[in-house]
Design a protein that fits this description.
27% strand; globular; 153 residues; four-stranded antiparallel sheet; 2 helices
Length: 153
């Protein structure tokens, strides 16, 4: 893959100790592309990237998933273990403008989670959990020049 100008870490940017809420960017989309379709601005920690439209779709799909609980449990999982009960999403949105206090740019997928599990809250406080991680399946689509694009479905 070609050299990308900037990789972006999705760190917890803000911690509300009183209400046990962590907030930050879940995913930053790529917005600037070369003629062959590869990004020149942002990639994720796995070297993948998504467009603004794909990030918006993923954000909305996540919101729908939270409202449709098959197990009766609500909340978020931890380390992609698919078990709810560690926290509750209190905000989930696409930033309409830059939000400096959480280092969000317009178009970023942002979230705030109230951490309800005591052990998980202690991990946040010890900085053992430092960010958000979007789970999901991706379909890699070849782009011009032999590179691939990951599209979240």
């Amino acid at each position: 893959m070609s050299k990308i100008a900037k990789s972006f870490e999705v760190s917890i940017a803000k911690v509300d100790e009183v209400n046990r809420i962590v907030e930050g960017v879940v995913y930053r989309p790529s917005k600037v592309f070369k003629a062959d379709g590869t990004p020149t601005d942002y990639i994720d920690s796995q070297g993948d990237w998504m467009t603004e439209d794909d990030v918006k779709k993923a954000c909305h799909k996540f919101a729908k998933k939270l409202t449709i609980s098959k197990s009766g449990k609500t909340g978020v999982d931890k380390h992609h273990n698919e078990k709810a009960g560690y926290g509750v999403v209190v905000e989930n949105y696409i930033a309409k403008a830059d939000i400096p206090d959480i280092d969000a740019k317009a178009g970023d997928w942002c979230a705030a989670v109230e951490v309800t599990d005591e052990a998980t809250w202690k991990q946040v406080q010890k900085r053992e959990i430092t960010g958000f991680s979007m789970g999901g399946n991706a379909v890699y689509i070849p782009v011009e020049g032999g590179e691939e694009d990951a599209t979240n479905d």
